[in-house]
Amino acid sequence: MKSYLRTTAFAVVFVLGYQAAFAAQDSDDFVEDASAKSLAEVESGKLAQEKGTSADIKSFANMMVKDHTMANEKLNSIADRKKLKVSTDAQLMDQAKAMILELRSAESFDQAYANNQVAAHEATITLFEDEAGNGKDADLKAFAAETLPKLKAHLSKAKALAEAHRGDDAKN
Known about the structure:
The protein has about 170 residues and is an all-alpha fold. Helix content is about 85%, strand content about 0%.
């Protein structure tokens, strides 16, 4: 019984420490994560422009490429001034999701893309809300707060697309 309690206590401490490590993200981490997520949106948007079959998916993909390219340009400008490193490749998980989308058939691509966009934007909004609320750098905090409304609008549109393309499980 003591062993079970010690193991449980260790697990709780580990999980709390793990969450705190992510909650206390520094400026370097935010810039790298935000730029990687934005690059992933641009790349998956380009893929959807090519492989998407529905006009609404292609229109959304065009918006993703345009909006996330502009956001990355702003973030790159801030990062350059502060000598912070931006990501040059989409994060591995986002790359894997894009690869899965690419491998799906054309009939299900639109649904897969819409579902992916819901999950991707939920994760990005969490990152930006944390930076806007808890960031230490005033410029990055302002960038995150300024970008959040557009990200939330993207999420709303992605959810509508997921529903329209029968994407009931928006976490796929």
